[in-house]
Structures are given as structure tokens and as C-alpha cells.
Amino acid sequence: MSGLLSVFFHLLLLFKLVAPVTFRHHRYDDLVRTLYKVHNECPYITRVYSIGRSVKGRHLYVLEFSDYPGIHEPLEPEVKYVGNMHGNEVLGRELLLQLAEFLCEEFRNGNQRIVRLVEGTRVHIMPSMNPDGYEVAAAQGADISGYLVGRNNANGVDLNRNFPDLNTYVYYNEKHGGPNHHLPLPDNWKSQVEPETEAVIHWIRSFNFVLSANLHGGAVVANYPYDKSLEHRVRGVRRTANTPTPDDKLFQKLAKVYSYAHGWMHQGWNCGDYFPDGITNGASWYSLSKGMQDFNYLHTNCFEITLELSCDKFPRQEELQREWLGNREALIQFLEQVHQGIKGMVLDENYNNLAEAVISVSGINHDVTSGDHGDYFRLLLPGTYTVTATAPGFDPETVTVTVGPGEPKLVNFHLKRSIPQATPTRRVPNPGHGRRVLPKKVQPRAREEDEETKRPQRVPA
Ligand SMILES: [Zn+2]
After folding, report:
1. Cβ pair 279, 334 in contact under 8 A
2. d(CA 303, CA 126)
3. Ligand 1 centroid to 338 CA: how many Å?
């Protein structure tokens, strides 16, 4: 008997020592417990926060990884993953929980790659954007889950068709001139979106996210913007057409980084579909209006792609380990992509940070802006670029910069206050015959002085 017991305890010990991360589906309570478990295991590099609640009052939790959780460090980019936006597409939710456990464990083990990532990047992981839909799908179970059961939120709304449509504005502006970045929200936007969408919009406006992926299921492909085609509907029929952004080459590269680091996505043939290199422009696959990825690109500095990760939207528990092994490297490599192109500070002559300065790259009709701390991030492929920083009340500054394939190049801007335009003054007859008179300094008029005081407030360092 005691021999049997000892064998039992040995087995228990062995199991505990080599206990793999458990691969199972996590219901809401289990998900919350798992996030806090990771936080308790890695308290100094993580933070759990909620961005708001679903229709049924469930929290939309985010787990943040950073060497200073809760703090934006200038020049350290913010990146995010959003899973389970469609409640019945559950693989992303489970992969993000695995990723959270993996980042924590590997950081603790001193894995240099993960240590570098956590110390140089602020990573925000939201395993579920639609916890209500998930519960409906999970109640049905993996085997009998219908194709659409649990897709929408508790009000029956598809959250990936619920963001303000900014494409219509940008397509108009591309033709007739107008801004190509940070398009404003419509006045009545809050009345048109669901609580989950509203929470996400507040979230992505309050962090200066640079890169993001939104995890779905039902196909295996990395999908990049635009999702909405230029002619979304013609006579009631949806028009499919490749609709590239001004950053098309960069988006293709971001998508390929994921598909080629993924176990099989890059092979192209998956779930009965074929996508060359395992990537696709969203609108050339099917046109979709009011999606989240286009909104990120058109309203904020964030470049988001949509990852379709499994043919089966609700894979069986036994599939989860294989899926994790197929996605692990891709999930890490994609986060590392935030470190490319150029970044730097935009400062005035007195070294004050300039927030919301506009960074334009000649030849790419899409600008980014500096964040509250005066730092900016511009993802770029290797090449030589002419980059201009502008801010109201300051002279623009232009530099030429060569970007390599490795770490981002540091390019700081020191903007000088513009000298107010000389106002033409009435000519006064020169009193000093034969004497040279130095021109009087032209005083700015009162109106210009008023404008001076209206200039945007600078944010102190
Ligand atoms: Zn989906």
C-alpha cells in the first residue's frame, strides 16, 4: 500500500514539475482567474485593467506587460492584441491566454528575447472583446456550436461592423483633397455604437498604439486594410476589389511576418480557400464596412491587421496545443515588428515636448502624430525617406533618413517657433535726407497676438 502511495506521490511530483500549461477553453470566470494568476506570478511586469463592460456587465479585461506597468515611457511603443471580438471565434482568446502565461514564464526564466521585448515594449493583451457572445457559444459547446451562435454581442450586433465608417470620408478626401489621418469621429458616434465598441474606441484613443492585431477564426489568413472597398455596394451588390492603403507594402510585410512565422498559414491552402503567402487585402477577399482595423488606421496612429486563425471557429480542446505551437512564434514575431522604421521626440527650442505634431513621409499619403509625451513612431520598410515634422505655430523641419532592416532609427525634431508674417505697413516719408534709416521692426498686430496665445499648450517633459 505504502509502495503504491509512494509511486502515486512520485507521479504527482513528476507531473507537477513538468506540468505543461493547461490547454482548455476558459469560461469568463476562468479567464479572469487566469489573468490574475499571471499577474500574481509576474507582478512587477504586468497589470490587469478593465476598459469597460459588456452589455451584460462583464469586464473587458486587458493584461499589460511592461517593465513599468501602467506608465508610458517615451520612445517605448505600445502594441495590442484583441481576441474573441466575435464571441464564437474562440481560438484567439485561448492563444492570448497562452501568450500571457508564456511571456510571464519566459521572462522569469531569463529568456533574453522575451526580456528585451518586455523591457522595450508595452504590450496590451485583451483576450476577449465579446465576453457575452463567448458565453452563448461556449454554452453550446465545441461540437454543436452553430456557425453563427454567439458571434454578436448581447444586443445581437456584430462588433466588427459597428465602428464609425471613416473610409467614406478618406476615399472622398483622396479624390478631392483633405486629411488622410486622424479623421474625426462623427458627432453622434456614441449613440451609434455598442458598449463594447465604445469602450474600445476610448481605449485606443487614450493610448498611442502603434501596432495591433485582431484575432478571428473561420479561415486561416492574415488580412490587412482596407477591409472596405472603394465602391462597397453597387446597385445593392457588394463589390470586392483590392483596396490598398497608402501603407500597402508595409501592411503586406506585417501580414507576411505573421503568416510565415505561423506553422501553416503561409502555405496558402487552408479551409478550402487559397491565399498566396497566406495573406490578403481585406476588401479583395470581401468588402466589410465599419470594421475595427480600418478604424484604427484612419482614426489613430495604430496599424492593425486581422488574423484569421482556424477553419473551425470553436476548435475542440484537444486541438489547442497544436494551435498554440503553430501560432507561438508568429505571435512573438508580430509584436517585435513594432520596432522598425523611425521614432523620436518632437521638441521645441526649449526642449518642451510637442504633442500632436504631424510626421509626414514624402510619397506615403498617411501621416502619424506625436503622442502626449512628444514621442512619435513611424513604421517604415527599409529605404531612404524624406520626413517632415510640423506643428501649429512652428516652422516645419525636414530631414532625409535611411532606414535599415533592424532597429528603428532615432530621428528627433527640434522645431523653431515661426516668426509672425510681416504685415505691410503704410509707407512713411523718409525724414532723414541722405541718412540711412534702419527699417523699423514690424510689430505684430493685436489679432496675431491673440492667435499667439491660442497656440496649443505644450506638455511639460
Ligand atoms: Zn470574426
Report:
1. no
2. 17
3. 24
Q: Which residue has the cell 453550446?
A: 140
CA of 2 to the centre of ligand 1 (A): 54
Q: Considering Cα of 89, then 91, then 94, then 99, what sign does the dihedral take?
A: negative
d(CA 242, CA 227): 9
Residue linked to cell 476562468: 30
Q: Which three cell numbers stand for residue 333?
A: 514575431
Give the DSSP H or E segment for 337. none
**Measured distance CA(259)–CA(329) in Å, rounded:** 10
Of residues 278, 282, 276, 270, the one with CA closest to residue 311: 270
HSE-up of residue 397 (Cα within 13 Å, Cβ side)? 19
Mean pLDDT lowest for which of 205-209, 211-215, 228-232, 427-431?
A: 427-431
Instruction: Report the alpha-carbon distance of residue 99 to residue 77 in Å, rounded.
Output: 19
Check whether 65 has a pLDDT greater than 50.
Answer: yes
Q: Say which residue, 238 or 284, is predicted with more confidence.
A: 284
The answer to whether the CB of 362 falls within 8 A of the CB of 396 is no
Cis peptide, bond prior to residue 171, ω within 30 of zero: no
CA 197 / ligand 1 centre spacing (Å): 15
Q: Which of 85-94, 138-147, 316-325, 363-372 has the lowest mean pLDDT?
A: 138-147
The mean per-residue pLDDT over the stretch 123-137 comes to: 97
Backbone angles phi, psi at 217, to 5 degrees: -150, 170
Instruction: Say how many Å lie between the CA of residue 88 and the centre of ligand 1.
Output: 8
Phi, psi of 87 (to 5 degrees): -60, -25
Angle, to 10 degrees, between the axis of helix 320-336 and the axis of helix 112-120? 50
Alpha carbon separation from 318 to 24, 267, 397 (Å, rounded): 8, 23, 57
The C-alpha atoms of residue 185 and residue 392 are separated, in whole angstroms, by: 21
Ligand 1 centre to CA of 357 (Å) is 35
Q: Tally DSSP H helices, then E strands, for the chain.
A: 13, 20
CB 249 within 8 A of CB 379: no
Q: What spacing in Å lies between the alpha carbon of 223 and ligand 1's midpoint?
A: 11
For residue 140, what pLDDT is reported? Answer: 86
Per DSSP, helices labelled H in 247-365 are 248-261, 282-285, 292-299, 320-336
Residues classed as catalytic = 308
